[in-house]
Model the fold of this input.
Amino acid sequence: MRLATIYHEDREEAALVTPGGVVPVSRTGAVGPDASDLLSLLESGRFHDLKAWYEYRVASGEGLPGEPAPPENVEYAPLYRRPRKIWGIGLNYAEHAGDLGERAPADEPASFMRPDTTIIGPGDEIRLPEQSSRVTAEAELGLIIGRETHNVSEEEAPSVVAGFTTILDMTAEDILRKNPRYLTRAKSFDTFFSFGPQLVTPDEVEDVAALEVSTVLNGEVRRTNTVSNMTFSPWSLVSFHSKVMTLLPGDIISTGTPGAVEINFGDIVECRIGGFETLSNPVIRK
Done:
């Protein structure tokens, strides 16, 4: 199953993305009208009801009620705007650590948190802040937590993940280079976290380790790598962070980048992951 959040009748609403088009969840009658946004679906547990309903409809050949909208006629929003937590993972590919002249962590992931005020969605503008003269963008695979969990094992981790998504993670790199303790500030400017357009459930991904993640600038693939080359796998990241604090439905773990690119006014930066809808954002000066 693939879900998105679209602008529909002057509000942001969860929608199913199917081969035949896009259908607002509220039109399906599957979960009731009071759970039409994606975060509410996750937090209430109705996400799992929707998934079971969808799988039944597909398996039975009944299809979905309503007339799907062609994807080109739909405007995507961020998947949601108020997650309880956004975890970022630094230097999770050894090659990226080399870009920054740093040593990749070997024993434990280098993680940090960021505020939800950084969130934007597909097509929204990344605004370069006045305080920074060098901003970079990084394509990343995102994990979306689907069940409340604490102290989960690596083997159990897949069962608590609702799905995957594409992410662009921005950094005011000149600020970070002044002092590594400035990481939170360097990551927390408004518009510095884009995610969407789709939540892709695990059953849609044949092999997570084989996914190829690419940072693309103005149509040119600048850095690419596969998830199998991460120092800490997606499932180990879920397990590790669940032992730090309880993970809640809608929490996001951004798993690290194959490489960053400097972005400037007028650029278009993309996250491309094989089998996923591309995430793309233009860059402006604030």
Notes: The helical segments are 38-44, 46-60, 94-99, 173-178, 183-187, 234-242. The chain is about 15% helix and 35% strand. The mean pLDDT is 92. The longest strand covers residues 161-172.
